[in-house]
Amino acid sequence: MENRHAVSKREAAGMTTEELRTNFLVPDLFNDGQVTLVHSHQDRVIVGGAVPGEGPLKLDAPDELRAEYFLQRRELGVFVIQGTGAVTTDGQRHELPKGGCIYVGRGVRDVSFETVGDEQALFYLFSAPAHTSYPTASVLPGQGDIRELGDQEHANRRTLNRYIHADGIKSCQIVMGLTQLHSGSMWNTMPAHTHDRRMEAYLYLDVPADARVVHLMGEPTQTRHLIVGNREAIISPSWSIHSGVGTQAYSFIWAMAGENQDFDDMDHRPIETLI
What we know:
Number of helices: 2
Order of helices and strands: EHHEEEEEEEEEEEEEEEEEEEEEEE
Distance between the termini: 36 Å
CATH topology: Jelly Rolls
CATH superfamily: Jelly Rolls
CATH class: Mainly Beta
Mean pLDDT: 93
Strand order of the largest sheet: 1-3-4-11-6-9-12
Number of domains: 1
Strand content: over 45%
Low-confidence stretches: none
Helix content: under 10%
CATH architecture: Sandwich
Radius of gyration: 18 Å
């Protein structure tokens, strides 16, 4: 498991492009036959990808966690981002199509991933420390709390699906969902915001091979950018804005952890104040 230490806003302001990418961009999460994990000291979250081979692929506890099993002190959110997949939790099998989401609570000892059918399944993982246990629960695509946001005039028409949140699937601190931009729209989260109570991670999806997303980050008065491709993740500290504009429409899975689970707790940054 790769381990990344937290970066302060003062450090980030002086970083080169290469340094910004090394600290905040997570490429290459999806590797054949492997669970790939990146641990961040931003609220001690883990982002990861699982690509099972012919049989089940087990989620083991990396040595760095000093845990008997992965969810001994943690909780986990999982999205299927390709194919149909099965997540087995302590012997209970959960089949999910692309876009399906499952929450697995603290104390579940055995977690494994498996492809169902001919198309290779890909699983995106987001984990955070947990102080108590909530039951494992899943949701199918389009069955969460759906919000229609933006409009075509501002090139930001998008559908936001909340799956793991205070009024949906219960968790200790994970808040997780999927946003899909409509055809012809390119912007997400602009005007931008921060939320000093929570960090956030993005996994950009449905980005065509000849397209990219320009992800905006940094303090509102010290903005920086990262060029992001398909199935690449961003670790966004609580002090950083997190917004993006694509050369074509795209989707992204967002996941938060930290002090609270209030989705609407944001510190809005008017566009005229960004530098």
